[in-house]
Specification:
- The chain is mostly helical.
- It folds into 2 domains: 206 residues, Up-down Bundle (Alpha-lytic protease prodomain-like); 87 residues, Cation efflux protein, cytoplasmic domain (Alpha-Beta Plaits, 2-Layer Sandwich), CATH 3.30.70.1350.
- The chain has 9 helices and 3 strands.
- α1 runs antiparallel to α4.
- The two termini are 40 Å apart.
């Protein structure tokens, strides 16, 4: 039943991603033509950002598809990390786009061209609606999937940038301050850069197998020790395969008890970790009380010979 629900959800998400991709591609063409005709960097900037969204959505769709492939002898965890790699690529492209925006904006600050404000306002308003619709299509599931999250932030960045373009058009329409178009582009660039950093940072944390930021390791250790039968814990590791798929391994010290009693302790610890910390994949090694712990957090480099 679980696999069936997951398959249905993946199919639904893939359909929504495909629809968002087509809509965004149409918007890119419209904004590029309008930006050239209106001589608006804000529209051209947003068109460039939307073009990266097309690529981001395509990569997100690919990652979603490949993560449904089952684990095998070559990839024993499956292909879940594909989504993290796509999130890393998406964040990097966002950062490069932001740098390009800053460069173009600087040139326009030094020699502001005349901007067709009416076209900027109309096309920008249409883009706000389209971007908001596509963002909402991708939003479902983005809270727990960094791959979808990166695509969602791409699209929400577009919502903010197109709103900025509309504001720029209104200001230029009533004041004639053509340099305001470049100013809005710079603000959009900083917004894009901020979102890129957030995704990039989280992607690198997962790839480095850092402990999830929202898990207090001291509290987790205390909760493990509070389980009946656990006398000590060491070689404790917690990491993420994806944003929502967390893994833990640890050595549990117990009294010299029968295997059946030890299994009950393992189950109790596993249930606690699932309910309190959302950790569903655990590897727990039992050791008797006379064993000498190596350390709470195992140093693989110094202890690999001993192990």
């Amino acid at each position: 039943m679980i696999h069936g629900n997951t398959s249905t959800l993946s199919s639904s998400t893939s359909s929504r991603l495909a629809l968002s991709l087509v809509i965004t591609l149409i918007l890119v063409v419209i904004e590029m033509l309008a930006g050239v005709f209106a001589n608006s960097l804000a529209l051209l900037t947003d068109a460039a950002h939307n073009l990266t969204d097309v690529l981001a959505l395509a990569l997100t769709w690919w990652a979603l598809w490949i993560t449904t492939k089952p684990a095998n002898s070559g990839n024993t965890y499956g292909y879940h990390r594909a989504g993290i790699l796509v999130a890393l690529v998406n964040s990097t492209t966002l950062a490069l786009i932001a740098l390009g925006i800053f460069y173009e904006a600087w040139k326009r600050f030094t020699a502001p061209p005349v901007v067709q404000a009416d076209i900027l306002i109309i096309v920008g308003a249409v883009a706000v609606v389209v971007n908001l619709v596509t963002a909402l299509l991708v939003r479902r599931g983005s809270e727990h999937d960094l791959n979808l999250r990166s695509a969602f932030l791409h699209l929400m960045g577009d919502v903010a940038s197109t709103m900025g373009a509309v504001i720029a058009g209104i200001v230029i329409r009533f004041t004639g301050l053509n340099w305001f178009d470049a100013l809005v582009s710079v603000l959009i660039g900083f917004l894009i850069l901020w979102n890129a950093w957030r995704i990039l940072h989280e992607s690198l944390e997962i790839l480095m197998e850092s402990s999830p930021a929202d898990i207090d390791m001291d509290a987790l250790r205390g909760d493990i020790l509070a389980v009946a039968g656990v006398r000590g814990v060491h070689d404790l590791h917690v990491w993420s395969i994806t944003r929502s798929l967390r893994t833990l391994s640890a050595h549990l010290v117990t009294d010299d008890v029968p295997v059946s009693e030890g299994a009950k302790i393992q189950v109790a610890v596993g249930v606690m970790l699932t309910l309190r910390y959302g950790i569903n994949h655990t590897t727990l090694q039992l050791e008797c009380i006379d064993c000498t712990p190596v350390g709470l957090y195992c140093d693989i480099t110094s202890n690999n010979h001993a192990h």
